[in-house]
Amino acid sequence: MDFSSGKYNTILLRSVIMIIIILISFYIMKIKFVPSINVIISKNQNIVKSQNISLGQNISSEQKMACVVYIQDRLGRLGNRMFLVASAYGLARLHSCHLYIELEIINELKSVFILDLSPLLISSSTFNSFTSNSSKSMTRISQSVVCDYITTLTRPNAIPSGTIFELVGYWQSYLHFAKYD
Prior knowledge:
- This protein is an alpha/beta fold.
- The protein has one domain.
- Helix content is 44%, strand content 14%.
- The chain has helices at residues 6-29, 37-58, 78-94, 103-110, 124-132, and strands at residues 67-71, 98-101, 139-146, 163-170.
- A 4-stranded parallel β-sheet has the order 2-1-4-3.
- Helix 3 links the parallel strand 1 and strand 2.
- It is elongated, with a radius of gyration of 18 Å.
């Protein structure tokens, strides 16, 4: 076998690029591996309690709700879900929106990583109250992406107030969350 051929160089280059992307996403999200399941359980219980307390303090009325970035579908595997959560987090911070992620997705990621999304994250009951309230209807926008960077989302008011913005698909560009360490 001739390992100096272009075919093997291309495979090696793609492998190195994928490893670098994964390492960058770990660094950007400040994810730490969890040593045992007992730590996960105790952290999850503490985070849920602190989220309930902070939600009551941070969101006392619907007037404070400008916009919501949310993830509902669990497409792909763990890597895609990491990119999806990181992209949603980046967009929520960029546009000063709240963040809502389905509990199944959060629990899946927390079974492997320690996540702290509490400054932006809202509970299911809060999200449901905003979506079911007929007096203040919110516009729903669903953006489906397949491994692409959407430059228009970085513009001011790309996610206007009164909007529920859903991320769907394979958001595998670090540029959606690169500025938030």
